[in-house]
Amino acid sequence: MENSNWILQFLGRLHPLLVHFPIGLLFTGFILELLTLKGKRKGLRDGISFMVCIGAGFAVLSALFGWFLKTQEDYTGNLVDNHQYTGIATAVLALITALVLKSSLKKSPVNLKAYRIVFFMTVVLLTIAGHLGANLTHGEGYLASVLPGNKDNYTSKESGALLAELKSVDTLSELQKDKLNLEVRGLFAHRCYQCHSENKQKGELILETKAGVFKGGKTGLAVVPGKPEESEIYKRISLPANHKDVMPTKGKLLTSDEIALVKLWIDEGAHWSDQAVKIFPEAELALVKPELPKVSEESHPIDKIVSTYFDDNDVSWQALIDDRKFIKRAYMDVIGLLPEPEFIDAFVADNNSNKRERLIDDLLNDSENYTQHWLSFWNDLLRNDYSGTGFITKGRFQITEWLYNALKDNKSYDHMVTELLNPDKESEGFIKGIQWRGVVNSSQRTEMQAAQNIGQSLMGVNVKCASCHNSFVSNLTLDQAYGFASIFAEEPLELNRCDKPIGKIAKVNFLYPELGSVEGTTLKERLFKLSKIMIDKKNGRLYRTITNRIWERLIGRGIIEPVDEMDNDPWNAELLDWLAADFIDSGTDLKHLIKRIMTSKAYHLPAVNYKSSEHLKQNYVFEGPVLRRLSAEQFSDAISQVIAPVYVAVEFNPNEEKMRALRIWHHEKDLTNTVLPLPGKRYFRKEFKLLKDDIKQASILISVDDAYKLFINGKPVGEGNNWTDVGKFDITKLLTKGNNVIAIEGNNLGKIDNPASILFAMKVDFEDGKTFKVFSDKTWVSTNKAPQSNWVNLNFDDSKWMEVRDYGTNNWSKLLEFTFKEHKETFVRASLVKQHPFLKALGRPNREIVATTREEQATLLQALELTNGAFFNGILEEGAKQWRDTYGNDSNAIIDMLYQKLLGRHPSSDEQKILIEALGNEPSIAQVQDVIWSVLMSPEFQFIN
């Protein structure tokens, strides 16, 4: 028995060696297999077959030897089990792959489809098993630890300083014992968890919990209070570096100071603090407004702080940007639009020393444009969208109307947060999250999404990692994440570690319990309490987070980066805390915060073009605003404003006229089933009765997908062939007292079954002030058979026609022009448009997750869309026609106005000369389009500088 044990133990230790063979062979074989798709490179078949068979054999051996290693050594825990199961499954699938391949090659003709599917599944499982194996070998979070923002900030300096402090006293106080214990536990976390955590219990020893530490492992008690020489953990860490039993076996050995700290802790009775160990740096929760530096040269509070910062970092104040650059920067940042040339000229000519502050006030008071610009920022942050996952199944809810009104009314941030966390019907979509189809991971349940969304967007803390296990990037634990999520749950939540229930029920709690209790017997009570403690002025984290986000939005780089990691060090803590405290003093007025930043000299400095994104992340020194690219919405709005409308309809219309008009069409049926409308003409009628003849005004609005001819009482009124062009007709003289009839010939021009519809509204105003309206609804009738020629007349018998069907609004957005009201909107703002391929190409994110920053680097997709995209080129072509119609053959006027409207200046003589040569004396539409495109692609237009 003894001999067999050492043999199995020896074979088990060959597992790490053997496992690389199936990884290499199967991966290489799969890559070669991809090269043979579509019948190519048939000469590779013998080599692939050899690799698959040998790889399958080694996969079986690796799984077997891995089982020996687990049973003969001291490996336990969920991570070990998961690695074992995926390894065995990989071996089984690899064998099946080899057998299916062999069988497929014998058939005539050869069919490799089933083999390739199984091979793909094998490689996927192999990847998962390999990743779990790497976690076992190198520790959980091994890959993630090297990513930006996930660096291990632990050093041994703190251990040395604490040791010196504790050695200087005869008797340790309770506070000092707590500090000692927390330092030792932090040391365990950084040096020992990769082998001795709840997920990987090597030697059955767990150093992650109090129970695990004092229970010990297979070799004895890890800690014997007061007796370090009898404590297995001290004996192991103090062995010579070349000893076979020295610990830790992975990573760096403990320093002499660290070993001395562990010994002192055990000597002092191995006191265990009730506080949670803080492995990672964590920002202070409280917020105290710093005193402003005594800098007489600067009057603005921000500039006083920045001036001191510049002195400390050997940075000089640069000359401020000129008025032309400033007005574009201010317009783009506050309302997201380009300033008109006449406004620019007037601003430049104005000699008032206070004109920049006055301009900022005027822009902030333009509530409609301010709201429509900043809506994109808040939609990203609050994961609010108009379409996408969850909307079809009613598992997701918009908060657009609430959000729009909150921004337009400049609702205080405290008020906004309160209504988001303790919501009514309009704002509840934020914490309800997305109800995904089918079964989801426990970390994606809606209650956990609420915790994750609030943590990230409002508090700048990552709850997602801790939703599955104790976080690898912060001090948050699984218990804390589930306690937070329980606030939003109707029933108690059972903790799941890596999607496996652990038999523990979460206790309702807030991430920062020192702010107060959120326990309550009902969901409503808990949400009310949460909304109160979140806006408590002691919760400095809430106010620092939004302050940092607004600074990043206006300056291009946060005071803390990334903006979702508020435990990171700020480049200037005094600036962040003063701004956040000033924001609180203002009554959490968001416009006040924006103005405070924009009126500083720091905002008026020239844009800095940092060499790379790394220079913005590592060793960053503030010198001025970052050179920023226009956002997807800013770029689109500028095109709509100057060239031609980019979008024709909105998903949310803030000035929508409430009507009962439905999108109707003939009820298409295939036997008894409703189907998509078939191509061809359909005929519609609606009779109505007017009781008076004192008509003052009668008007019609109509939008038909695809084409229509409209008749009133047998008289032709108008026609159209584009649903985005709203037909507006005056029919005052066509109506009579008594019975009247509306008749529409609709034509679905598609070649296959596709959506079609009529949207119709009629308004009749009488002299006495009364109004009569008719809308497209289910009282209309239709037929798919060509009727007699008199079908448009009142006396036609339509009793055999069918009731129309409401085809809903999913296929059609809202048209700004479909209103009887006078309105000032001249084009559709991109922030009101649902996700569009053009916006997506330019960087608008998918809002199924919180998106707090957008990628600044141009992508290949953007380059292709802006050079060869059919949609963009179609807009430019339409715009070129309009410019040609406006300016005719006057090439000088075209160039000059283009520069003034897009760049805010006149062209230089060289620029004028080059573009005149490009346009010629009689510019074609194509030439005008080319010139427009060249200016739009210039860095001067594309960037805010």
TrEMBL record:
All copies of domain Cytochrome C Planctomycete-type, residue ranges: 192-248
Start and end residues of each DUF2231 domain: 14-137
Keywords, comma-separated and alphabetical: Membrane, Transmembrane, Transmembrane helix
Keyword Nuclease assigned: no
Domain of life: Bacteria
Domain DUF1549: 301-490
Transmembrane feature ranges: 17-36, 48-69, 84-102, 114-134
GO terms assigned for molecular function: electron transfer activity; heme binding
Domain spans labelled DUF1553: 529-642, 833-917
InterPro entries, A to Z: Cyt_c-like_dom_sf, Cyt_c_Planctomycete-type, DUF1549, DUF1553, DUF2231_TM, Galactose-bd-like_sf
Name of protein: DUF1549 domain-containing protein
Origin species: Winogradskyella flava
